[in-house]
Specification:
The protein is mostly beta strands and about 550 residues long. The chain has six helices and 26 strands. A hairpin with a 5-residue loop joins strand 21 (about 480-485) and strand 22.
């Protein structure tokens, strides 16, 4: 299975977007050959260390470029692992996580745009590839494969160029198509609500999702297609109180399929669809040109990205593995060894100026610090933002801010620290200032009708927030996470406690609790209901889920 984020890959890396899927499919198709590899692997496992796999590639240059991008965005040292699989060279981009929390590293990778990462254990002690028996396989005549005399089952850092070299396109009629996806189901119990104004019984939900991903690539062209079906069943009719479920709207999409496939809108069971990716990427000498529906993300803050305006998820949403796609024309050009210039046009409904956007992003690494700058014009608003990621001693540090000039002028800011307390315990804390919000709960509800909330990616209602998080890797298969978000203005809070268990290869089970606290609903002088706080009126929730990837 491969869930590597297509939108986060570099020019050279994307043609091998789904090589991790190939690796696992090969194991199923050729168990004897893979048994040789696994035998060699376990034979050299003395001193084995855990690593996080960020992607797999058939071409060494592609893997090296992706490694550089990973090191820049995650601010860590990575490695390339080399194998021969069915006679073809195969490189994995990996990051060791010994001494840090794997869950925290996974979260950091996901926020940096690397989707579908997975953990692995191998030997990091050897600096040179050990001699080993070559797999019995058919000769490989692929122009991508590099002839090797041995199979390496340990990790060894491969030499990478100090600058991104221009790649001469290879002309070939050979195309490769990979199919992957997932099935997920969430069982949710939402507590009853009782106050002076109304009573709501306990709500039972099943949120389901099936995603099909098709990626076809050649030497200079990549095609991507993602389609998702999401049945939702609820024990009673509800309006806007499904806090953990996201229904894709028409923001920043030129046109779209009908969101719901259910004829009866009053039914307790609804079937939603989402054509989430449909794009083609041309790999030119100057850079990558991507046309169609794709995911576009901004910023590098861990929880709330002030620069991010294109359909970010609410923190309470369950299924956030793949960022919602938007319709865009985008060009990405390398800038030096570790930088990138990213420009694009995002099209809204009917390509109307009021619903569309244009952007410029510049990212680079200077003296070990990652800097980013963004200029975005959207919904007749102008956003100017930037940020930095670095280290303060043993602490990781980030700072990001954005100023918006338009119907409403405001500033948003996020800054925070992370720290590895022990080998398997990792903590983060972030402060977020939301200038689009309000300090008074009685003015919260009208905010939803303003431009920042309609088109600017803002979903928090208050002004000042503190967001702590701690994760614990109990075992290689079990991880725990605790996260809170405190509204410092109205003193309401939302806390999540979650556990993830790796039942089998590609099969996961999750459990979690959402707990809300704060002032409940109040009655205004004109006898209308209003929020007493942002989270106080929300019912607590318990959920469990099963996730299978193919």
């Amino acid at each position: 299975m491969l869930n590597v984020a297509f939108e986060s890959l570099s020019k050279a890396a994307r043609p091998a977007l789904v090589a991790c899927a190939a690796h696992r499919l090969i194991f199923q198709a050729y168990p004897r050959h893979c048994l040789v590899v696994m035998t060699l692997f376990w034979a050299g496992l003395i001193g084995a260390e855990p690593v996080l796999v960020l992607g797999g590639f058939n071409d060494k240059t592609h893997a090296a470029t992706h490694l550089q991008r990973a090191e820049m965005r995650l601010n860590v040292q990575g490695f390339l692992s080399y194998d021969i699989v069915e006679g073809a060279s195969y490189y994995r981009v990996v990051v060791p996580y010994s001494g840090r929390s794997i869950q925290a590293l996974k979260e950091k990778a996901l926020k940096a745009g690397f989707e579908g990462v997975w953990s692995w254990e191998t030997n990091l002690a050897s600096e040179k590839p050990p001699a080993a028996k070559r797999l019995v396989a058919k000769p490989d005549t692929s122009p991508r494969a590099e002839p090797q005399a041995t199979t390496e089952t340990s990790l060894a850092r491969l030499a990478t160029p100090t600058t991104v070299q221009a790649r001469t396109p290879k002309r070939s009629s050979r195309f490769q198509t990979n199919i992957s996806g997932y099935l997920k189901t969430y069982a949710v119990i939402q507590n009853s609500v009782a106050n002076d104004f109304f009573n709501l019984d306990t709500i039972y939900q099943t949120q389901n999702s099936g995603r099909l991903m098709v990626e076809t690539f050649g030497d200079d062209l990549v095609f991507q297609f993602h389609y998702e079906l999401s049945p939702l069943s609820v024990s009673r009719l509800v309006g806007g109180d499904l806090q953990a479920y996201s229904i894709v709207g028409d923001n920043y999409r030129l046109s779209d399929l009908e969101t719901t496939l259910t004829n009866d809108p009053s039914s307790k069971t609804q079937l939603y669809q989402n054509l989430d990716r449909l794009n083609v990427q041309l790999q030119l000498k100057a850079g990558d040109l991507t046309i169609g529906r794709q995911a576009i993300a901004f910023g590098a803050a861990r929880f709330i990205n002030p620069i991010d305006v294109f359909l970010p998820f609410d923190l309470r949403t369950f299924n956030t593995e793949y960022r919602t796609g938007v319709d865009a024309i985008r060009f990405q050009r390398p800038l030096g060894a570790l930088g990138e210039i990213d420009v694009g046009l995002v099209l809204g409904a009917n390509a109307d100026l009021a619903s569309s956007a244009a952007f410029v992003q510049v990212r680079n690494n200077i003296n070990g610090k990652d800097f980013n700058f963004s200029l975005i014009e959207y919904a007749q608003q102008t956003l100017i933002g930037g940020g930095v990621q670095s280290e303060l001693g043993d602490l990781g540090f980030w700072f990001e801010t954005a100023y918006v000039d338009g119907d409403v002028d405001y500033v948003r800011l996020s800054t925070g620290l992370d720290y590895a307390f022990k080998e398997h315990i990792f903590g983060m804390i972030e402060y977020h200032y939301n200038g689009a919000g309000s300090q008074q709960p009685n003015t919260y509800l009208p905010l939803y009708e303003t431009t920042p909330y309609q088109r600017g990616g803002v979903f928090l209602l208050g002004e000042s927030y503190l967001i702590p998080s701690i994760s614990l890797q109990v075992s290689p298969l079990l991880s725990l996470a605790l996260q809170g978000i405190l509204n410092l203005n109205d003193h309401s809070a939302y806390t999540s406690i979650a556990a993830e268990y790796n039942v089998a290869d590609n099969f996961y089970m999750d459990f979690g609790v959402y707990v809300f606290s704060g002032a409940a609903l109040t009655l205004s002088p004109d006898q209308t209901l209003r929020l007493g706080s942002e989270y106080g009126g929300s019912p607590n929730m318990f959920f469990s889920s099963l996730r299978w990837y193919f």
